[in-house]
Amino acid sequence: MTTMAEKGEHRYILNMGPQHPSTHGVLRVILEMEGEYVMDPQPVLGYGHRMHEKMAESRPWPNFLPNAARMDYLSALIYNHGYVGVVERLAGIEATPRAEYIRVITSELNRLQSHLLWLGVLVLDLGAFTPIMYTFEDREKILDILEDVTGSRLTYCYMRVGGVVRDIDDKFVERTREYISWQRSRMPMYDKLVTGNIIFRKRIEKIGEFNPDMARRYGLTGPVLRGTGIPYDIRRAEPYSVYPEFDFEIPTETTGDCMAAYLVRVREIEQSLRILEQALDKLPAGPAMAKVPKKLKLPAGDACYAVESPRGELVYHLTGDGSDTPYRMKIRVPSFSNLSLLPELCRGMLLSDLCACMGSLDLVIPEIDR
Amino acid sequence: MKDYFALIFTGGKSLIVGMMITLRELFRPVVTVQYPREKLPLSPNYRGHTILIRDEEKPEKHRCISCKMCERECPSNCIDLAGEKREGVKGMVLIKYRLDFTKCSLCGTCVEVCPPNALDFSKVYQHVGFSREDFHYDLLAMVEEDK
Amino acid sequence: MSTVMNTGFLPLELLRIIFALICAIVIVFGNAVVMGYLERKLAGRFQRRPGPMEVGWHGILQLAVDGVKLVGKQLIIPKQTDRVLYRLAPIISFAPAIMPMVVIPFAPKLQGRDFDIGLIFILAVVAINVLAILIAGWSSNNKYSLLGAMRSVAQNVAYEIPMLLTLLSVILVTGTFSLRGIVEAQSGGAWFIFFMPVAFLIFFAATLAETNRAPFDLPEAESELTAGFMTEFSGMGFSLFFMAEYTYMFIACSLTVILFLGGWSGPPLPYGEYTSALWFFAKVYALLLTMIWIRWTFPRVRFDQLLNFCWKYLVPFSLVHLLVTAVVLKL
Amino acid sequence: MESKDSVIAAFKKIPVKVEEVDFAQRGYHLEIRLESSQLRAFAELLRTGNFYLSYVSGLHLTTGIDVSYQFANYGFPCRLLAHVSADADNSLPTIADIFQGANWHERETKDFYGVIFRNHPNLKPLLLAEDMEDLKPLLKKEQALKDRAAITRVEKIAEDKPAPAVKKEDA
């Protein structure tokens, strides 16, 4: 078997995507197969490429705000947060304390929403149709809460330099608290239906084994990294916004397989709920928008702002030249690096395991393509 | 050998537990609605396409002063408006306000920058058309029609 | 045939077979419609959705409309397919599905023809489906189709073994291959499921795999192989596969009912020789609903796990079971 | 390398120009200027620590293309940004064999700026289409080009007045 594989005989090319149910969008993977074994998967990117970095360079910085939501459509608020964060850092503006809390609350809701969708989609990739409908029921509650404050359901454009567009009210706080207890009551159900299921466990245990060295070589971040035992989370490692004020854990697992990534994400749901609870308790009064000059120019110089997106480390690197248009903006997206290890990770794997691996990487293709 | 039977037992149990959960959900009420027949209440803060709102004091008029702030600030360049000077009227009179909704990303910049707060979001979420031009909304006509 | 016509009358036995075949076709189509509706409705309810609601009362006519749509669709035959085999595959899959209906005893007097080897006849005819799937996969000239077809062949061949071994346990007790004989051996509530529940479970698991149902739906595995062997089929080609799938499910569940759940036996009904078919159908649909329930609960197993499950669990268990049955009978 | 200081000490071996910057203002801890000949040694040094490659990106200046490498550390907060000017023939040595993650980042930089990474295993277009190799979308027009001084922060103002740009506007 191996000798035949080494010779490269009996191999054939299987084209997976850009329209394939488990590539989650317009990712294309060219698989060199041997029977059902994937010998060499090569991702092909760029089907959803929009050159966001060029767009940022070609117009005044406030005009990039809507773009920030359109890279990773599942964590638009976290991308919002990163972008206003980098502009604030470069221009030396501080958002009001209440605004920072609102940003954290909405970001965590957004993270929960992304994790819930991922949970459903991973199980869908493995062939179970029902859990995604249950996670969507939960996710819908978050979307309703966020819609009420941001006005949109998916591509939010909510945060502004200095604060947020609309202050949250008591109704929002109350609904979020209701949601927290609802989500807590749902988790045992997922434990029984998904985590405990023998077929599910056998499908993702010992599949796609990541290790810390691989993580270093490829720049792996996010829950997949924490599954290898490295407790690296930007919210803790380089705290931004008001995250230092909250007490939460960084869940880690040591096995580094898809199951570990799964468990980390499921436990992160609980941690996000904890952050939400504390943020709602501590929410300070005051304005939700700081006084910001109407025509803000970006000073010369550069600044980075790293945030923890549901998929890993998101970095905005903004270079200003004294005008209102950025001279250069680099966006480092987590899935880009996370996907780049696919060829090494999935060599010699079964086709079904490749689907499980891609599901547990939690890919969002427009984010990779930018 | 012990593991062999233990796996059968735990595995079988987990399958039955899973089936009990879906069985329980089977008898619970549905959570979705039949969309065109039933509609969920829309959030009052929902962002549909922008509209010109009418003055509270003078309900027959919109508040737009044709200052073109929204046109300048729009990230997607989807607003096209024009005003003209008319005799006997103070300020500019709006003669055209076209919104290219195919480009609009509903960021809300125009609503925020508008000095007289003449713009607001509508609650329209059903947009149907056969060509791109069907989504070029004439906000001025809309506000006049609405009287 | 013509000589028969010339004599002016049909032999009674031939008439009976023709009538049975017509009934079989009615059952096949009726079952596909009922199952299609039930599957979608129940899938909806398992997922807290209402399911089909638009056509008729609670969407009850949905399948009729879908059928019309599928018939009206263009038959797309992609270039570079093997045209003859590509057209033949759905027919080869569907045609054998009708034949077993003739020998299934729905009620004491509702049976097309009782063969002495009825059980073997059903198994032999149903096995043709694998060939159809292989042909479909091969002739489509699509790698996903071929992968699905290959999976299907391996899976079906592997699961025939535990299935036949458990059948043998039953045959040892009844001493006949005649389906009517097997049902009559269980009269008076002495259903075999009470004596050999393990055999029932093995048989049911094997039928799930044989009919390519979740969690063993690897040949179509939509998240991996898009639609497996059916990828390239549209319109009637697709709907024949679709109907064949439901018919094979029906046959598999009928066999389970005949072998383990006492066939038509149940509380007595008026005109029981005919109406006890009601009990038969009730039991069959209970099993079919369980299949639907399983499908909408579990993820799909992986291919090696599927075969492992067969060779490591089902085959040893059914062998031991056969041995135990034989020993008990001898004592 | 257990702390930021030990990292700085380790860099003395190469030797590279290291500047410690204010994290609150810049979002990274160390700014490094490298010669292209030092790049591989620099990457190999980081490979021995607990560092990972965050991204590779470019910057088009009057002097040519400036490629920046950002690394961060899994163990302790130490994010560093290294600038390297591309050689005269617009090329740089690859680090894709040291940090495999650089493979795609370098391909992306090649797409956007046309920087050739020497000995890169597979320098085909990644995000752009195969026939767009000459597009190089992030190269700026000549009149828009700036030199490094124009995009360097004037630290003196920043020290006593935290928001220089705001002040300027208010006045």
UniProtKB/TrEMBL annotation, chain A:
Catalyzed chemical reaction(s): a quinone + NADH + 5 H(+)(in) = a quinol + NAD(+) + 4 H(+)(out)
Gene Ontology cellular component terms for the protein in this record: plasma membrane
Subcellular location: Cell membrane
GO molecular function: NAD binding; NADH dehydrogenase (quinone) (non-electrogenic) activity; quinone binding
Coiled coil: none
Family, similarity comment: Belongs to the complex I 49 kDa subunit family.
Subunit structure: NDH-1 is composed of 14 different subunits. Subunits NuoB, C, D, E, F, and G constitute the peripheral sector of the complex.
Enzyme class: translocase
Record's bilayer topology term: Peripheral membrane protein
UniProt protein name: NADH-quinone oxidoreductase subunit D
Role played: NDH-1 shuttles electrons from NADH, via FMN and iron-sulfur (Fe-S) centers, to quinones in the respiratory chain. The immediate electron acceptor for the enzyme in this species is believed to be ubiquinone. Couples the redox reaction to proton translocation (for every two electrons transferred, four hydrogen ions are translocated across the cytoplasmic membrane), and thus conserves the redox energy in a proton gradient.
EC numbers, comma separated: 7.1.1.-
Domain NADH-quinone oxidoreductase subunit D per the UniProt entry, residue ranges: 125-294
UniProt keyword list: Cell membrane, Membrane, NAD, Oxidoreductase, Quinone, Translocase, Transport, Ubiquinone
From TrEMBL, chain B:
Residues annotated as binding [4Fe-4S] cluster 1: C64, C67, C70, C114
Topology class, membrane: Peripheral membrane protein
Cellular component, GO, one term: plasma membrane
Residues given in the record as [4Fe-4S] cluster 2 binding sites: C74, C104, C107, C110
UniProt keyword terms in alphabetical order: 4Fe-4S, Cell membrane, Iron, Iron-sulfur, Membrane, Metal-binding, NAD, Quinone, Repeat, Translocase, Ubiquinone
GO terms of molecular function: 4 iron, 4 sulfur cluster binding; iron ion binding; NADH dehydrogenase (quinone) (non-electrogenic) activity; quinone binding
The protein's required cofactors: [4Fe-4S] cluster
Reaction(s) this enzyme catalyzes, per UniProt: a quinone + NADH + 5 H(+)(in) = a quinol + NAD(+) + 4 H(+)(out)
Domain 4Fe-4S ferredoxin-type: residue ranges: 55-84, 95-124
Cofactor note: Binds 2 [4Fe-4S] clusters per subunit.
Annotated localization: Cell membrane
PROSITE patterns in the cross-refs: 4FE4S_FER_1 (PS00198), 4FE4S_FER_2 (PS51379)
EC annotation from Swiss-Prot or TrEMBL: 7.1.1.-
Alphabetical list of Pfam families matching this protein: Fer4_7 (PF12838)
PANTHER family: NADH DEHYDROGENASE UBIQUINONE IRON-SULFUR PROTEIN 8, MITOCHONDRIAL (PTHR10849), NADH-QUINONE OXIDOREDUCTASE SUBUNIT I 2 (PTHR10849:SF24)
Function: NDH-1 shuttles electrons from NADH, via FMN and iron-sulfur (Fe-S) centers, to quinones in the respiratory chain. The immediate electron acceptor for the enzyme in this species is believed to be ubiquinone. Couples the redox reaction to proton translocation (for every two electrons transferred, four hydrogen ions are translocated across the cytoplasmic membrane), and thus conserves the redox energy in a proton gradient.
Protein name per Swiss-Prot or TrEMBL: NADH-quinone oxidoreductase subunit I
High-level lineage: Bacteria, Pseudomonadati, Thermodesulfobacteriota, Desulfuromonadia, Geobacterales
Gene this chain is encoded by: nuoI
UniProtKB/TrEMBL annotation, chain C:
Keyword line: Cell membrane, Membrane, NAD, Oxidoreductase, Quinone, Translocase, Transmembrane, Transmembrane helix, Ubiquinone
Keyword Cell inner membrane included in the entry's annotation: no
Any one Gene Ontology BP term: aerobic respiration
InterPro entries hit by this protein: NADH_UbQ_OxRdtase_su1/FPO, NADH_UbQ_OxRdtase_su1_CS
Primary location recorded for the protein, binned into one broad class: membrane
Highest taxon in the source lineage: Bacteria
Record's bilayer topology term: Multi-pass membrane protein
GO molecular function, one term: oxidoreductase activity, acting on NAD(P)H, quinone or similar compound as acceptor
GO cellular component: plasma membrane
Pfam families referenced in this protein's UniProt entry, alphabetically: NADHdh
Record-annotated membrane-spanning stretches: 14-38, 84-107, 119-140, 161-183, 189-209, 246-265, 277-298, 310-329
Reaction(s) catalysed (UniProt annotation): a quinone + NADH + 5 H(+)(in) = a quinol + NAD(+) + 4 H(+)(out)
E.C. code: 7.1.1.-
Entry keyword Magnesium: no
Places the protein is found: Cell membrane; Membrane
Family, as annotated: Belongs to the complex I subunit 1 family.
Subunit structure: NDH-1 is composed of 14 different subunits. Subunits NuoA, H, J, K, L, M, N constitute the membrane sector of the complex.
Function: NDH-1 shuttles electrons from NADH, via FMN and iron-sulfur (Fe-S) centers, to quinones in the respiratory chain. The immediate electron acceptor for the enzyme in this species is believed to be ubiquinone. Couples the redox reaction to proton translocation (for every two electrons transferred, four hydrogen ions are translocated across the cytoplasmic membrane), and thus conserves the redox energy in a proton gradient. This subunit may bind ubiquinone.
Record-given protein name: NADH-quinone oxidoreductase subunit H
TrEMBL record, chain D:
Enzyme Commission designation: 7.1.1.-
A GO molecular-function descriptor: oxidoreductase activity, acting on NAD(P)H
Enzyme class: translocase
Reactions the enzyme catalyzes: a quinone + NADH + 5 H(+)(in) = a quinol + NAD(+) + 4 H(+)(out)
UniProt KW keywords: NAD, Quinone, Translocase, Transport
Residue ranges occupied by any NADH:ubiquinone oxidoreductase 30kDa subunit domain in the UniProt entry: 33-143
Family matches, as Pfam families: Complex1_30kDa
Translocase found in the keyword field: yes
Residues forming coiled coils: none
Function in brief: NDH-1 shuttles electrons from NADH, via FMN and iron-sulfur (Fe-S) centers, to quinones in the respiratory chain.
Protein name: NADH-quinone oxidoreductase
Protein's organism: Pelovirga terrestris
